[in-house]
Design a protein that fits this description.
By secondary structure, this protein is an alpha/beta fold. It has a single domain (about 5-315), classed as Inosine-uridine Nucleoside N-ribohydrolase, Chain A, CATH 3.90.245.10. It contains 14 helices and eleven strands. The protein has helices at about 15-25, 40-55, 80-85, 105-115, 130-140, 170, 175-180, 195-200, 205-210, 215-220, 225-235, 240-250, 285-290, 305-315; strands spanning about 5-10, 30-35, 65, 120-125, 145-155, 190, 200, 240, 255-265, 275-280, 295-305. The strands form two sheets. A nine-stranded mixed sheet has the order 3-2-1-4-5-6-11-9-10, sandwiched between helices. The protein has a two-stranded antiparallel ribbon with strand order 7-8. Helix 1 packs parallel to helix 2 (about 40-55), helix 4 packs across helix 5 and helix 5 packs across helix 7 (about 175-180). The longest helix has 14 residues, at about 40-55. The protein is globular and about 55 Å long. The two termini are about 20 Å apart. One of its GO terms (cellular component) is cytosol. InterPro entries: Inosine/uridine_hydrolase_dom (IPR001910), IUNH (IPR023186), Ribo_hydro-like (IPR036452). One of its GO terms (molecular function) is purine nucleosidase activity. Keywords: Glycosidase, Hydrolase. This is Nucleoside hydrolase.
Length: about 325
């Protein structure tokens, strides 16, 4: 049985890997892609998504343009320091030209149309800021039961990457994240950076991908700026493909080990803005000290077989 999948994304180098992973998986019915602001501005993320799909010869997949800014407050900056000025290490133009026009009506309309027309519940892989998904949940409560689950790359249990407390995707629109994770309207799987960092790939892994064929070579050609950033972040010669880890879970449920835990998002303007507060205490203790606003329960990915996951990613990305 194939997974019915929609990807909401802000490409971004790791988003490009995630899109290719889904596009190359025979057990995935990739229904559509929606873009959102984030790693770079909306025009660039939309164009990058369409170019990656063209690289994967998936002109059949519709792409719609989503939110250009957060729900409430302005977005302070984008992630050019990691992804380069165009989101793909300055090499977006090396990818093929898009094969298909952007869909009319925007991201929320496409999300709603795809959910309405699917005979089976659909998984949404949300690998950028959660603005589009939050808007969908607010505007179309009649479609909640059409969503199998939302797999979210975002959040951090220990420390952030954009601030000391917050991971980039959640920090980019904390109000949207609070709506999606705190609303209790659809099942959510949160894939935090604590785990995605542990899944980092080496330059040897990238060399194997580059030598696998034209798609692998094109993907690895997008990584120089990203690699330079992660050499500093990791302290060794490798990089983190956060979003591909989340899409792996969307494709193969259970490839990541997850626990049901209360999750809250900090929306104040203090130093913890955008932090995900995950209550990892034993259930017995949580029950004794329960307080209002303790967070809705999400499944939080905490572990995986690291070697097996890297093999899974490489095998899927090297398909011709």
């Amino acid at each position: 049985m194939s997974t019915k999948l929609i990807i909401d994304t802000d490409p971004g180098v790791d988003d490009a890997f995630a899109l290719a992973l889904a596009a190359h998986s025979d057990d995935v019915d990739l229904l559509g892609v929606t873009s959102v602001f984030g790693n770079v501005g909306l025009a660039a993320t939309t164009r990058n998504a369409r170019r990656v799909l063209a690289l994967c010869k998936r002109g059949d997949v519709p792409v719609a343009e989503g939110a250009a800014r957060p729900l409430v407050h302005p977005h302070p900056h984008v992630a050019k320091y990691a992804h380069g000025a165009d989101g793909l290490s300055g090499r977006a133009a090396a990818l093929p030209e898009p094969e298909r026009d952007v869909e009319n009506g925007g991201a929320v309309r496409l999300l709603a149309d795809l959910l309405e027309s699917s005979a089976e519940p659909v998984t949404i892989a949300a690998i950028g800021p959660l603005t589009n998904v939050a808007t969908l949940l607010a505007a179309r409560p009649d479609l909640h039961d059409r969503i199998d689950r939302v797999v979210i790359m975002g959040g951090a249990l220990l420390h952030g990457n954009t601030s000391a407390a917050a991971e980039f995707n959640i920090w980019s629109d904390p109000e949207a994240a609070a709506r999606v994770l705190g609303g209790g309207e659809v099942p959510c799987v949160l894939v935090p950076m604590d785990l995605t960092y542990r899944c980092a790939v080496s330059t040897e892994w990238l060399d194997a991908l580059a030598s696998s064929g034209p798609v692998g070579a094109a993907l690895t050609a997008l990584t120089p700026d990203y690699l330079a950033h992660y050499r500093k972040a990791l302290g060794w010669d490798g990089m983190v493909i956060h979003d591909a880890v989340a899409v792996a879970e969307a494709i193969r449920p259970g490839i990541l080990t997850a626990e049901a835990l209360p999750v809250s998002v900090e929306t104040s303007f203090g130093p913890a803005r955008g932090a995900t507060v995950v209550d990892q205490r034993r259930p017995e203790l949580r029950a004794e000290t329960e307080v209002p606003g303790g967070g809705s329960t999400a499944r939080v990915a905490v572990d995986t077989d690291l070697d097996a996951l890297r093999v899974f990613l490489l095998d899927r990305l090297t398909l011709r």
